[in-house]
Amino acid sequence: MSKRLILLLLLFFSGVGICLPEATAAEGSEYTTKGMITFTPNEEITDPLNPSDPLQPIQPVDPIDPNGPNPGTGGALSIDYASSLDFGAQKITTQDKIYLAKAQKYQTTTSEEKQGPNYIQVSDKRGSQAGWRLQVKQAEQFKTEEGESLSGAQVTFKNGRIATIAESVPPTASTSVVIQPNNMLKDVLVAEKNTGAGTFLLAWGDEQTAAESIELFVPGSATKLAKVYTTTFTWCLTDAPPNA
């Protein structure tokens, strides 16, 4: 190899050795950006959900009103649904009797007919965690269209259990509620401050006990006419817990 070629090769590799350190010596740079999302209270009506699977919306069937159940109350704090109760057709007797409400019938999103526990559904979409309180009352006794009363009749809600997918601490549920027809409010669900955000269902019973968790006691001494008796339950949702 000639001396000239050797000299050129030495100069070439010397140049490479000089350039590489300069390229890697530059300091790294950092740049930060931000992300943001803002939530606002949601006033839209929340659809009824399945108390056995609260991820699934359903269409409840009202056993009394052929036009279907009343829509939810709407608003950021709302009652979305509550079951009406059908205690069936019963034979007149002079003995004390307990009659059981039929299970809640409903249709799935694929129009499949099923049944499960009777329930009430409440949604808190205010975004404040201020707490809330759900109560129920019965103003009058079971009566016929002519106003004849079913004396001494009393309804008991049993086996209450909460269903939800919310991460918020759930409200406190009254697992058993005895209702008197005296227009007095009874606590059903109570969400203290910093609890109860999201949608919560209080079901009476489960798939196995759905048809035996709401009782109507009728004393044998009550006069029973061969007529239909009805009553009304009023569910009251207030925007603050009792200890607020």
Roughly what is the average pLDDT, rounded to an integer? Answer: 91
- Quickly give the structural class: mainly beta
Number of DSSP strands?
Answer: 17
Q: Identify the overall geometry.
A: elongated
Helical element count? 1
Beta percentage is 25-35%
Rg of Cα set: 33 Å
**Residues in helix, %:** under 10%
- Please describe the biggest sheet, giving its number of strands, its sense, and whether it closes into a barrel: 4 strands, antiparallel
Termini separation comes to 97 Å
Q: What is the N-to-C order of secondary-structure elements (H for helix, E for strand)?
A: HEEEEEEEEEEEEEEEEE
Query: Taking strands numbered 1, 2, ... along the chain, how are they ordered across the largest sheet?
Result: 4-8-15-11
The low-confidence runs, each spanning 5 or more residues with pLDDT under 50, are 5-13, 15-19
The domain tally reads 1
